[in-house]
Amino acid sequence: MDASLLPPGPSASPTAARERVVVRGGGLAALTLGAGDMLTVLDPEGLQPALVFVTDMGAVEGWEGAGVETLPALLEQGGEGSAEVARLLADMRLAPASLAGRTVLSGDGGAGATADIAARADVLVVIAAPGGPMSPDAQDAPTDLIVTVTRARGRGRPLPAPLALPKLDLRVPAAEARAYKVKAGDYIQIIDVDGRQCADFLAFDAAALEKGAEYGLDATTTRTLMGAAYPGPGLYSKYYDERQLPLVEVIRDTVGRHDTFALACSAKYYEDMGYPGHANCTDNFNAVLAPLGIRQRAGWPAINFFYNTAVDHTNAITMDEPWSRPGDYVLLRALTDLVCATSSCADDIDPANGWEPTDIHVRVYDGAENFSKGIAFRMSADAEPRLTRESAFHQSLAAYTRNFVEYRGFWLPTCFTSEGPIAEYWACREKAAVMDLSPLRKFEVTGPDAEILLQRTVTRDMRKLAVGQVVYTALCYDHGGMIDDATVFRLSPTNFRVVCGEEFTGTWLRTKAAEWGLHVHVRSSTDQLHNIAVQGPLARDILAEVIWTGATQPAITELKWFRFAVARLGGATGPALVVSRTGYTGELGFEIWCHPKDGKALFEAVWAAGAPKGMKPLGLSALDMLRIEAGLVFAGYDFCAETDPFEAGIGFAVADKDEDFVGKAALARRKANPAKKLVGLKIESNDAVGHGDPLFVGRAQVGVVTSATRSPILRGQIALARIDVAHAAVGTAIEIGKLDGLRKRIGAEIVPFPHFDPQKTRVRA
Question: Which range is least confidently modeled, 57-71, 131-145, 614-628?
Fold first, then answer.
């Protein structure tokens, strides 16, 4: 559940509380309504049916005669959320067939279609977004529904549903603290009930306490061992005590901004601010821990969950309102028996708690439960949070590494345990490598006006794009700054697939279609299409063994650069695939797109064919080396909303087309009057250089490093950089500033760009 974006300032006690629930495409969700509550189902992308099932028709206005009886079948399909709904019904001893259903959205409406449901009495509601697996060559992806619940006056905001059956359900009232004990292996969920509320946390080794020794969480030790301001889900996830022994592990985090620098608020803090006698977390902790024999502190060194602090460029520790929203939480796992304490911070004199302290809730779950690890990821500020998920290839890759990081909502490997980035790199350059690129966002653009929409929004000429062809393009704002870069597939005269990095790209395309009154649908298919890339000189030979194409499609050996084929795995009856001659390495390569249900079979077939030929798996670290050598740009590093395609080194993607498109006038002006240019750098030193390092000519800063790496094949350090056009000529000597930019300089020279295979002979092979 998620609330809408919170307004600045105090969050006044609402007369009506609003919640949002996302029903994933092909999935289900459940919630309860009370008398007077209102539920709205929104289809944000269009063409998605919505079914609603209730336990009592009489509890819902206008539901007499409802009779859709498909809930058992929907649960059996196993879409996202179905297991949770099935468990809830079982706990309530309700047979799925006993719920009455109705189609509230038919699935033939445009983006933004809604349906309202009003409750007369307490009722359980199950919402379904039906739809089966999308074939890679089809475009019938089930998409998400957004359910908004407006609670009747005085009902308040409910807690999110428990993750499992709680062993402890403990409310920590605003400006108070509570102590509790947790067994080794059990899970601790700390929930921000209303949002923007700090929860200070203490944990002590219970066995040591029984012997009279106090060993609690130590922030300095934790930061040192984890190499970060605070741990998060993944490989570096533990909080330690001063003995360097781990006490808790972070399993889930739906906020991603916490504090390990400041003390829990104390009497001295409020006295110094002019508020003697103010309630504070330190005194609250002392009160609840004293009965357990724990000595008092003048200021407790706590882990301050949801506290939004940062260190700015002047070395000051700054603070602002928490990022947490209603229902956000941190899930920890106890690594030994613990004595814990949690406070709801009492601070109401600054933004630390949004100016108004509210409750915190603690739940403890049995260690026998199995919760996935994840960080809540939002592609935009108002998007619904989603825990890090595994791609269709994750389990196959996990057999070779534990080195996974969160990347745009997915777990992706950085490198492989038995190989390492250098070996992976050389495999791609000399033989072949396979990598997971599933986090790419995919959008199905369909309808009579699909070509018109893309012609007006991308920088390439879509009218020249043939069926079966792929093109690389930019999408820009009116001022010429880039929204995203993308590859566009043409599946038919009226059907396109946009593959990009930003979820916002689909939202923006949908907004433009509505603004121009176009008959076109833009629907997300990210969860319906996962993809691996097979790259390297032997990629064609490897895939020729496992990919089958029909007589009307090009064979793998015939597929040209930036073309795609509809294919099958293994033979005419194998799983459906789309194979494109594309990649992100500068080598001959292909991307293979499949439905997630076929991911394991696809990976195993490719691995069986490739491993004997020397193919290796490849992670993000090696991929960064490859793409920088090839001059392939990366969003957030080599371009952003302030960068136009010419400054990003992809001016070739701006077509000279007669028709207007978003940003055309600005791009023409920028092209005629360039200010910055993307260049390649050869760096004289082995001192580390990275994104954001300034470039100098004398004392004047003239540019910035956008990406840098050590190039194995070029035997030195190289970089991509954006620099003033006055200093962008090949052969120009510049300096890279380190420390404060003045006390240390590293010499570099502007060299031809891209650094490796500038004529792209390898990728075209």
Answer: 57-71
The sign one gets for the Cα dihedral 653, 654, 659, 663 is: positive
DSSP state of 74: H
Tally Cβ neighbours within 10 Å of residue 701: 14
Which stretches of 140-281 are assigned E, i.e. beta strand? 145-150, 166-172, 177-182, 187-192, 199-205, 238-240, 246-253
pLDDT tens by residue, 102-133: 999 999 988 999 999 999 999 999 999 999 99
Mean per-residue pLDDT for 711-738? 97
d(CA 139, CA 495): 8
| Threshold 0.90, pTM exceeds | yes
DSSP 24: -
Q: For 139, which DSSP code?
A: -
Cβ-Cβ contacts under 8 Å for 76 (sequence gap 6 or more): none
Residue 210 CB burial class (10 angstroms; 0-12, 13-18, ≥19): exposed
Strands 564-569 and 547-548: antiparallel
Give the helix/strand (H/E) hosting 76.
helix 71-77
What gap in Å lies between CA 266 and CA 269, rounded to an integer? Answer: 5
Laid out side by side, the sheet with 303-305 consists of 177-182, 338-343, 199-205, 303-305
Give 542-576 pLDDT, tens digit per residue.
Answer: 999 999 999 999 999 999 999 999 999 999 999 99
On whether the CB atoms of residues 448 and 471 are closer than 8 A, the answer is no
Enter the DSSP assignment of 55. Answer: S
Mean pLDDT computed over 249-267 = 96
Beta bridge partners of 701: 696
